Amino acid sequence: MNNNMDGEMFPGVPRKIQETNSSLLHNPPLAIMYGTATGPQTGVSTPRSSSSLRPLVLSHGSLEHSFLIPTNIHFQASQIKDRFLASLPEPTDELAQDDEPSSVAELVARYLGFVAQDVNEGEDDAQGSYEEVLKLVLNEFERGFLRGNEVHALVATLPGIDTKKLKVVESYYAARAASNRPIRPHESALFRAASDEEAKIYNVFGGQGNIEEYFDELSGFVQHIRGLCGGLNHRICGTLAECCLAAATAAADSWESFEKVAVSALTVLFWIGSRSQQTFPRTSLAPTILQDSLDHGEGTPTPMLSIRDLSQAQVQEHISATNKYLPEDRQIAISLINSARNMVVAGPPISLYGLNLQLRKVKAPTGLDQTRIPFTERKFQWEKATVFPNATHVLDFGPGGVSGLGVLTSRNKDGTGVRVILAGTVNGTVPEVGYKPELFDRDEEHAVKYAVDWVKEHGPKLVKTSSGQTFVDTKDESNLGSAACHGCWHDPMYCSLDVLWLQP
Predict the structure, then answer these.
(1) Could you tell me which residue ranges the Starter acyltransferase (SAT) domain spans (predicted)?
(2) Per CATH, which fold does 15-178 belong to?
(3) What local confidence, expressed as pLDDT, does residue 60 receive?
(4) Alpha carbon distance, N-terminus to C-terminus of the chain
(5) Which whole number is the average pLDDT over 69-81?
């Protein structure tokens, strides 16, 4: 291969890239040809010879990645690259735009998805060059970024908003589908722990949830994670309409049986909705009532009202005060008990508006979450329904994300050693729960996380000394190095000064 007068092997390619790839062209290591020499591998290898490789540089702002492409498909790969880069916005200094990549992995994944789209749309030539480019880039993505792990585990480490992370997932699985490479059933570290009886997993479904965008969440799931839905046939719990989903999923033991059971479940759900509408048709409210409710941050009145941070007795007191002024067919009642201080009241919207008038004297300031729940659920005690024996993990399949049943269940389970994972959310702001990447991560050492069991962590234990004496061991004794004697004390304004703190 002849160099030009300036010593550049490939004009237009940065010198740093040329210096790196020059040695690779003449002495290609095994890791470049077939993947790294160590560690688990995924994907297929694309044999190539050193005499037929040319570099292809993919760059956007400060992001840059290079491939070694066989000469016979280099032209096609370059064409796709040029069209792909033209589809991206102008790079910014901090790569902060929502529609531009924020990491090298995301840049390569987007290019991968772009190639997959061309293959799916039949843009390939008679020799199948685009498909060859797709297979090569897919193999390089798996070798260089996944490194034997799953794509959700990768996106958990990437910067940027959730939309960008989901774009990486979508592009990767689109490439796998376009190259006719089905997903292999690799078990994650969490599911291996469950198989080894080191973890016990339960599942919950939230139905419509308590957000208006529940259908957007479902459609987004289908869009980004096609082909990942598998069979779950045990340990499933849901509320009312969601029980149909749970029962249908648990009853099916094959795709054929699931299709039959699904028809029955949809039939039941149809009639639930139909009879509910017949019994309780939708009504309109006076514009002044609607505007007053909106002005006070209470949203549009619906047949169900969520109340938080009041006990059941306190809520019932307000309900009774409201019902005094209502006819029997317009009265309201508690219909759902999520926890000791989180419940839902059901009834006509105009009656619940009257209850809100009562609650305005004691409720939290406007702007806090006063979530409303659709009128599709009966009286139900979620705390009792989620008493899962020996549970270590609960998977919340949503919808609702951090506003759904998962966070509520996590609060109810606080200190019991149960970790809740939001299976439909790739990332979130609540540190007490886990997110979707934990379901797929294969890292044996770091992927499986357990919640703290306060009884095991802080409870007293009996220990026997070398002399055979038995003592009660507590955290204080371990920290202080001696037995501690505790006494109850108060601020002097509440008790006599004669009350002293007892020293060890």
Answers:
(1) 245-377
(2) Glutathione S-transferase Yfyf (Class Pi); Chain A, domain 2 (1.20.1050)
(3) 92
(4) 84
(5) 91
Q: Three-state DSSP class for 454?
A: helix
The one-letter code for the residue type at 281 is P
Q: Which two tokens stand for residue 218?
A: 């479902």
Whose CA is closest to 371, among 331, 397, 344, 337? 344
Sheet with 304-308, side-by-side order of all strands = 304-308, 342-346, 333-339
- Each residue's pLDDT tens digit, 443-478: 888 889 999 989 888 888 888 888 888 877 777 666
Do residues 419 and 434 touch, judged by C-beta distance below 8 A? yes
Q: Which amino acid is at 487?
A: G
Lookup: tokens for 463: 């220990």
Q: Which CATH class is domain 301-359?
A: alpha beta
What distance in Å separates the CA atoms of residue 50 and residue 56, rounded to the nearest whole number? 15
Helix or strand (DSSP H, E) at 21: helix 15-26
Domain 191-277+381-440: state its class: alpha beta
Task: List, in sequence order, every residue forming a beta bridge with 201; answer none if it has no partner.
Answer: 393
Report d(CA 142, CA 303) in Å as an integer: 50
Domain boundaries, the chain: 15-178, 191-277+381-440, 301-359, 460-504
DSSP 146: I
pLDDT digits (tens, 9 = 90+) for 19-29: 544 444 444 44
Q: Which long-range contacts (CB under 8 A, 24 or more apart) does 121-125 make?
A: 125/76
Q: Which of 448, 445, 414 is nearest to 434 (CA)?
A: 448
The residues near 445 (Cβ < 8 Å, ≥ 6 apart) are none
Cα–Cα distance measured from residue 250 to residue 264, given in angstroms and rounded to the nearest whole number? 13
Please state the pTM of the whole predicted model.
Answer: 0.57
> How many CA atoms lie less than 13 Å away from 434 in the CB half-sphere?
26
